[in-house]
Amino acid sequence: MRAAMMYGAGDVRVEDRPDPKIIQPTDAIVRTLASCVCGSDMWPFQSMPATDTGRPMGHEFLGIVEESGADVTGLKTGDLVVAPFTYSDNTCDYCAKGLHISCRNGGRYGFDGVDGGQGEAVRVPHADGTLITLPVAADSQLLPSLLALSDVMTTGHHGAVTAGVSRGDTVLVVGDGAVGLCAVLAAKRLGAERILLAGRHTARTDLGRVFGATDVVSERGDEGIARIQDLTGGVAKVIEAVGTRQALDTALGALLDGGTISRLGVPQYEQGPIGPAEFMRNITLTGGASPARAYIEQLLPDVLDGTLTPGRVFDQEFTFDQTPDAYRAMADRQVLKALITP
Length: 342
Hints:
This protein is of the alpha/beta class and about 350 residues long. It is built from twelve helices and 18 strands. It has two domains: about 1-150 and about 290-340, Medium-chain alcohol dehydrogenases, catalytic domain (Quinone Oxidoreductase, Chain A, domain 1), CATH 3.90.180; about 155-285, NAD(P)-binding Rossmann-like Domain (Rossmann fold), CATH 3.40.50. It has helices at about 40-45, 95, 125-130, 145-150, 150-160, 180-190, 200-210, 220-230, 245-255, 275-280, 290-305, 325-330; strands spanning about 1-10, 10-15, 30-35, 55, 60-70, 80-85, 85, 105-110, 120-125, 130-135, 170-175, 195-200, 215, 235-240, 255-265, 285, 315-320, 340. Strands 3, 5, 6, 9, 10, 17 and 18 form a seven-stranded mixed beta sheet that branches. It has a six-stranded parallel beta sheet with strand order 13-12-11-14-15-16, sandwiched between helices. The chain has a three-stranded antiparallel beta sheet with strand order 2-1-4.
């Protein structure tokens, strides 16, 4: 099969790899119909040390079940399925609490001998616990929005849920990437009345307005904080969808005392402000990696009936063999989120 491998910063190659095979009786083989490049893939694309072996890439995909192990009972050959961006058994104590990201028997695609999602086929461990069957045809126009449930939409939803967004709220979303835009969509779905989107890329913030943003703040740093304060007097609920210290500082500067910040962006820093000043403000820092498996079935009906359209974040399509071009286009900010198809 053809699959994408990263050999270091800026070095993504599409190579012939062995076809995946059933190893454990709980495995399934999924033939990929659609995958994508994640914003989090951009961090290793910019900084990964060179390696001779390469790393399988991709963790968001949907496709057709081709084969399953003897212990797989909930899936059959020919099923169209979406895969959360991590696999899980859906039976351990963490999964029972809806924290599938911490599954005791789970893991990540592209590691420990498991295929990456940016390839023609994937061996999925714990297939019964991981994969969710989709009640649409394989050529459905809904596929991009269904693929978004694999990560980006469920991550945006996680931010809105952990920030405690509810009807009538004012919410700030920091970051106009695909996750930030899906956080806008999620906050709107949960009933937020006013949604400020901090971003400075017009095409993205325009889509943010379509998704439900009522205000766009294009200023950055102290100017951005001052603008948010002028507009709102401060906000009680913030979703930080970038992962840089500047984004966190903006969230803290805009936050009212007693408020909540949900962090969705993978942090690119090891230390942050947690000293006496923050202590005295009684603020809550929450969020983290989304337990996507816990949310997909909640959001799926709204995607199927067209209420949610997160697939609009995919603004350019590439073939498998064009995956290196997709990485470069996203790194150069020519593309918001790249869709990859066979």
